[in-house]
Amino acid sequence: MTKVRATVVCEKSLHKVAKLHNFSDFLYLGRSERKTGGQNRPAILADSVEAVIAAIYLDGGIAEAEKFIVKSLKDEIQIATKHVGDRDYKTVLQEKLQENGDVKIEYEITKEEGPDHNKKFESQVSCEGKVLAKGKGKSKKEAQMNAAKKALENLK
Description:
The protein is of the alpha+beta class. It has seven helices and three strands, in the order ααααααβββα. Strand 2 (120-127) and strand 3 form a beta hairpin. Helix 1 (2-8) packs across helix 5, helix 2 (11-20) crosses helix 4 and helix 4 (42-60) crosses helix 5. The two termini are 32 Å apart.
């Protein structure tokens, strides 16, 4: 269940819920945030869903909050339960590198560029001090995942 929850309760899923319910129409944002398109930023919209869930909980209790969550995220929950055993690239890389014992695996953000609302990251993964691969992404996690994916491809 923890893996299902982690897969479902993420920015991507909550952003979908916010778009479905047109949350952007109800956000109170500063002028500069509106000018830069803040009402459409996935992180802000995902945070707004969390705020609405909290408000539902405080106003109507856990049962009402649960109804909203299950109804809004039912598709993501179904998808996540089908893929509950799947492993991500970082996990697969770690398991492969540690087949014959414990080794030191490190991820380092080597580059960060762009404005705060549109950052791009580059990460590298190393094993015992040797760089295996680099990856890029719109988040640190995505950059690390792409580095792990490339490292796995290089190891084949």
